[in-house]
Amino acid sequence: MRVLDVQWHPPHRGLPHWAIDHFPDVNPMKIAVFDTYVTRPDGRLMHFDILVPDASRAQEQVLAFGRKYLAARGLPAHQLSAEECRFCHMEIAPEPVVEEIDREGFAIIELANCE
Asked: In angstroms, rounded to a whole number, what is the distance separating the alpha carbons of residues 15 and 85?
């Protein structure tokens, strides 16, 4: 699993919805963005987004992806629940996000205290 190093400024970045009609060769992926906050063992608040295809946005599946990410970072994954991980918005994914979702089933954008 890779953590994406992309500039993420939801919801207005990526391919705008109006562009889909004007550029028929583009095959956009509609994704759901889940805003996630987890308190680390050192007390700092982690903030990251979990990005999943629109069709895969069942809460338990998203939480499983978040737990996989936390475990890969060596952090306790059991504490992630719907309280810490909430649906935020829909977006058209930029190409690096599409590639990561095609590879892993989800993507992570690290926002704060994720080192």
From this structure: 25
For the stretch 9-23, what's the b/e string if a residue is b when 16 or more beta carbons lie within 10 angstroms of its beta carbon? ebeeebbeeeeeeee
Inform me whether the pLDDT recorded for 50 exceeds 90.
yes
Other C-beta atoms closer than 10 Å to the C-beta of 74 total 8
Asked if residues 9 and 89 have their Cβ atoms less than 8 Å apart, the reply is: no
Task: Give the pTM.
Answer: 0.78
Select from 30, 33, 35, 34 the least CA-distant residue to 15: 30
The pLDDT assigned to 79 comes to 75
Contact 111, 48 (CB under 8 A): yes
**DSSP characters over 23-77:** -TT----EEEEEEEEEE-TTS-EEEEEEEEEGGG--HHHHHHHHHHHHHHTTS--
The answer on pLDDT for 81 being more than 50 is yes
- pLDDT value of residue 8: 46
Helix, strand or coil, per DSSP, at residue 108: strand
